[in-house]
Amino acid sequence: MRSSVRNLSTRRRHPLAGLVVLLVGLVVAGGLYSAFAPRAATAEEVSSRDVEAGRQLFLIGCASCHGKNAEGITTQNGGNYGPSLIGVGAAAVDFQVGTGRMPMAQSAPQAPRKTPVYDAEETRQLAAYVATLGPGPVIPEGDKLNYKDATAAEISEGGEFFRTNCTACHNSVGAGGALPNGRYAPSLEGVSARHIYEAMQTGPQQMPVFSDDVITPEDKRAVIAYIKAVQDQPNYGGLGGGGLGPVVDGMIVWIAGIGGLVAFAIWIAAHGARVKKR
Amino acid sequence: MSNEIEHNAAGAVTEPIADPGLPEHQYRPTDVDPAQERRTERQISFMFGLASLLAVAFCVAYFAIDDNQTFLGWSALNFALGASLGGALLLIGVATVQWAKKLMGDHEIIEMRHPAASSEEDRYAVMKDINAGIEESGFGRRPLIRNSLLGAMGALALPAVVMLRDLGPLPYGHANTVWAKGMRVVNDVSGLPIKPADVEVGQLVNAEPAILFDVDEEGEKVLHGADALAAKAKAAVIMVRMRPEDITPSKGRENWGVDGILCFSKICTHVGCPISLWEQQTHHLLCPCHQSTFDLADNGKVIFGPAHRPLPQLPLGVDSEGYLIAMSDFPEIVAPSYPELARDQKKLGDSA
Amino acid sequence: MSNYEYTDIEKTGLGKKAAGPVGWLDERLGLAGVAKKNLRKVFPEHWSFMLGEIALWSFVVLLLSGVVLTLWFQPSMGEIEYTGSYAPLRGVEMSQAYASTLHISFDIRGGLLMRQIHHWAAALFIAAMIIHMLRVFFTGAYRKPREINWLIGIGLLSMGLVEGFAGYSLPDDLLSGTGLRFVDGLIRSIPIVGSYIEFFIFGGEFPGDVIIPRLYMAHILLIPALLLGLIAAHMLLLVYHKHTQWPGPGRTEKNVVGYPMLPVYAAKAGGFFFIVFGFTALMGALVQINPVWTYGPYNPSEVTAGSQPDWYMGFVEGAVRIMPNWESTFFNYTWSWNVFVPAVLLMGVLFTVLGAWPFVERAITGDKREHHLLERPRNAPVRTAFGVAGMTMYGVFWIAGGNDIIATQFGMSINAITWVCRFAWLLLPIAAFIITKRICIALQRADTERILHGYETGIIERSPDGGFSERHAPLPESAQYTLTTHDRLPVLEAPAETDVNGVAAPHGRAAKLKARARAFYFDGAVDKPTVEDVEHANEHHGEYDGHPAELGEDFLGVSESGIPKSH
User: Beta-carbon neighbour count of residue C260 at 10 Å?
Assistant: First the structure.
């Protein structure tokens, strides 16, 4: 190998060779830098290409409900097919598209979480496009999502915030809860930290907004840390019943408990095998 | 004419099918086959033996298994202790029952019943004795003694009832809370005061009166323990921000909000659960306990569920530093209804 | 009669060893008389007689596990900062009651197991009482002389509910504290005196700092003492009256057929105790219940979605959820019908109806005899239908209590569920009553058919003119007898409105009402066949095929209840 390289370098001596090497070096260095350097907390790493790609995706998959310029399409009786996305921010798009809620596959009281239609790249592009429509919450990253480093005290405090602000809808272990008319607060099981943060930030569908000025980014991180801690901890007492509480316990009492004990009673009082009379 | 069903003598004449009597006894395999009997004996003793082993296993698990260990995503210690204890008990029970079913005598036995009532002689004798007692005491003949005795016994009930008076104080405080003019509305848990610009449209803030986070000179909380909880149970509030065009305030409430930020009691008027299921698009607030639903864009009106009274609203203002404050205590009575509510509300309305 | 050959007791090993101690006891306690009557007391055998035992043994498990828990539980509402081993709650302010519950769950080895056994046993205790009560109801075992025992049972059930509520409120966690808040609102809804009772019970404003210690006293002292007393009375009456039995060959109103207490029932009942205990312990090992550490300590500004009481209060919860929001003001007082009616009145009505039922039924039927043979549910169609209607109403309320869980798990609208239950609580029981009554009558007809015409053998034959018919064979005599031991229907007479001289009867209206009720009670019920019916049927039995039923060599006979054996 080495001999062939030396051959190459001795034989090719174009005048611009040095310049090319310099350019290649610059491009490689710049590319490596942009690939591996830490991102600034507020600047979004988007190029105009992403925005344009996102706009194309938007026109195909989203404009039919949200309008060609994302201004929303209202109905006659004051509702809408899709609300305006101007000012919702990249975070909202990342949440809705990333959890598969958007695009909505069929009409329903609310958009359910499902397998995302767009991959991570496309989601990023859509988010980039919508972010250009108006200033809004940016996609959280870095320290804000670093719940694994949360201290025990932070987890405890996160729990206090969680029980005050979240359990009324999502239940003590994030198993979800009922809202009026067929809507619901979904389960938080298996939801990424980024999506939880974005949901608090943007208030998707009926969920209220929890702005950074009231529930600070540190508080949000603590909440996420608590959710993860509670969901990852063992069900100490045994089978958990989905975290749905006394209703499930009642079913188990009657079906397994009384059912089992009555089965034993039937066995105890059963006549038993008898020898055939000859 | 008697309403009683005629009690017919149960005999062959009136009953269509005669009693064939107890069926012939049938033997169990363990009665006739000694091999079966021995096998069942071994089965039963094996179960007892296994139960003893499980009881020992409980003790081993108690000391050997660490609190932090898990098994199948459960506490390993809880599982091991419960399975061994439960298994031991269950095996003892099953073995005992098996013994009764397979090996103990199982011939059916007949026992005759006796009528529930005592015999006529016994009843007569008892009546005689009671009568003798009454006669000898003169209870019947001495009405003064009897009546004064009854009076004394009756009067003794009074101390017993009166003793209960200090179970608790007479009712107070239903009609007011710790809210007062100028008190800041602070975020629950963090205690941070809030400026209107901090709250976005569609936001929900779970808030408390600032006094719950105030500390005195020694750094002790001003309200703590039962007092703090009692205050929270009436004074907890939520703040929501809606677009001003969506709100339809009733007369006199037009200036109770700030830039579309409204403040309502967090305590449901049904039976007192805290409510914070806020639907930002419909402006409905749902109580998780019994599903009372309130429309916060329409003065907290009840639109579904068993709550009767609308959710009380707290008038908001802004203090000199720009933080949100209450402009007075709640003009309506918060928390669940109670008998004197109508009277207290009138008083509150008159003094407003 | 046993087939064991008895040796004289003084000559056996046991007799020689026991003579001393037994003599010592008898010389001081004179127990031989009582023991003589009860050691070989006969108990009839059927699994449905063991349901009350499940309740009894669950109670014993509750006593044992409860005593263990009292060694560590601290019934105080004093606030402390948690410093124990459950990390997510460290530094949180909570009551000592809650902190000690966490301590039991995480720092006492076997503590979580005891808590779970205790809670499962409590749930089983009440469930067993209910299913036992239903068995007694549907078989008519509450009739004379057992009305008092029935009332004791209703008392046990109602106190069990209170005891359970007090028990699960002791940890002072968010879920049970929310329940206490509900009870606070409930007490407030009591007309006129509500706020006074509220302040007396809570010792001041809610939540105060005495409710947990007071519930503790009620839970470990007052109510268990009452329960023990009532259980003792319940058992005593059971022993005195002797157990009822199912009708069958050899069984009459005047005897009990079964097995003796010693050794068979002592072994079976004792064994069942260990089975109930072991089963409950296994539930405590395998299935988590009431994970209070996930709820957090009680805080009046916090709540969790899916807040429900334990299952046995579910019917009250459901009634409260579906009640319309009626509240009115009379005489300057507020009357909160929306809370008072479903929470307080409903329970009052339920237990009054349950308690009064034996006496109401007796007044309607006029049946004043003693009953020791059980009635099959089908033979009392209106009673059974009424019972099923009651269960249906209870069930609708129960479902309404879990309407939010149903909504989220089945993707339904919670408002729709509430609206449906608002009507179903009355309409479904009416439908259930009608359907059950018809089913009972149909079953009675089927019984009569089987007595008169035998059972269907499955053998089809063809007559000479081409018609198909199924051959019937007579039921065994024991089965026939069992089917005819219930009472004949009484003759219903309209009460005389005036007597011979034209004077109107003094209680005419009441008597007429009673007669109408009686007619309703027996309406439609099919009477058992008379002697003539049976003789008539026997004559015609072989008529249509002309020869005795030839059932072939493959025929394997018929079981006791008349079902042909098929293998």
Answer: 20
